[in-house]
Specification:
- The protein has helices at residues 10-31, 36-44, 52-56, 63-66, 94-103, 108-124, 136-162, 178-187, 203-215, 227-261; strands at residues 74-75, 82-83, 87-88, 165-166, 169-170, 191-194, 199-201.
- By secondary structure, it is mainly alpha-helical.
- It has one domain.
- The chain has a three-stranded antiparallel β-sheet. It has a two-stranded parallel sheet with strand order 1-3. Strands 2-5 form a two-stranded parallel sheet.
- Strand 6 and strand 7 form a beta hairpin.
- Helix 1 (10-31) crosses helix 8 (178-187), helix 1 (10-31) crosses helix 10 and helix 6 packs across helix 7.
- The longest helix has 35 residues, at 227-261.
- It is globular, with a radius of gyration of 20 Å.
């Protein structure tokens, strides 16, 4: 079986490039000579930066949330996957993570995203290849929704609980320059936060994406099954995850600009 003939969309290629470039940009940034005292203070307020806690010499793993009571004053929604810079995130139990994984799929944005993906795939006769007849759109919508839902349950629920990781995305916010935020949001694909606040490899995301892609072989059309098609699906999901992180990071800025212009 050959590699799927459907070409990757431009946004997917761009996001995949971000995955490849971000770690190198991040390491280059860290290698530049800087004042250690200034670095420790600056990194203390990063929401999810590697070594932030250690660099700041903080013993309390939740100090990055509590060190700025003047800015972190609003409680974050418990079952919302995005935490903003002014929000305090409540701890999550294993059951909470599973509930978050399910409830995050019921938001307006996720429902719209699923419908848009199905519509685009139907228009291009892309994956999953159910055809373009009257019933094909419904089959395609159901297949995509099932894959995205299982990926959410695996990544944000089951594996996040097993690895004791926090599945939420912590927005860095407009207090930092755009380049730093772009690198930060792209690297959240490979770096996450433990329940105690320390940084860790994002194994739940990788394991969840691979598990959902493998499971799709049970219900996707024969044309979309097999190792090469599964690999394509995994890479596409990684790229989409990076794109979603970038949207989470900057959509607040866009909303402020739109509100200001009004």
């Amino acid at each position: 079986m050959g590699f799927p003939t459907t070409t990757l969309p431009n946004y997917v290629l761009a996001a995949m490039l971000s995955i490849c470039v971000a770690p190198f940009a991040y390491s280059q940034e860290l290698s530049e000579p800087v004042d250690q005292t200034t670095t420790a203070i600056a990194m203390a307020d990063l929401p999810d930066a590697p070594s932030a806690i250690a660099a700041a010499g903080v013993s309390n793993p939740f100090a990055e949330y509590t060190a700025q009571p003047a800015t972190r004053t609003k409680p974050a929604k418990k079952f919302h996957r995005v935490v903003h810079p002014d929000q305090l995130a409540p701890p999550l139990t294993a059951g909470d993570k599973l509930a978050l994984a399910v409830m995050s799929r019921l938001t307006v944005s996720d429902i719209f995203s699923t419908a848009f993906s199905a519509g685009l795939s139907h228009w291009r006769d892309g994956r999953p290849h159910y055809g373009v007849d009257e019933g094909a759109f419904g089959e395609r919508l159901g297949g995509i929704a099932l894959k995205q839902t299982t990926q959410s349950i695996f990544s944000y629920g089951l594996y996040a609980a097993a690895f004791h990781d926090d599945p939420r995305y912590y927005v860095m916010g407009d207090g930092h320059n755009v380049t730093k935020r772009l690198v930060y949001s792209a690297t959240r694909l490979v770096i996450t936060k433990k329940d105690d606040g320390t940084p860790a490899p994002n194994w739940p995301k990788f394991a969840g994406v691979v598990s959902a892609a493998a499971l799709s072989n049970a219900y996707y059309p024969q044309r979309d099954r097999g190792p090469l098609n599964t690999t394509y699906s995994v890479l596409n999901s990684f790229a989409t995850s990076v794109l979603n992180n970038e949207i989470h990071e900057f959509i607040g800025d866009a909303a402020k600009i739109f509100h200001h212009k009004k």
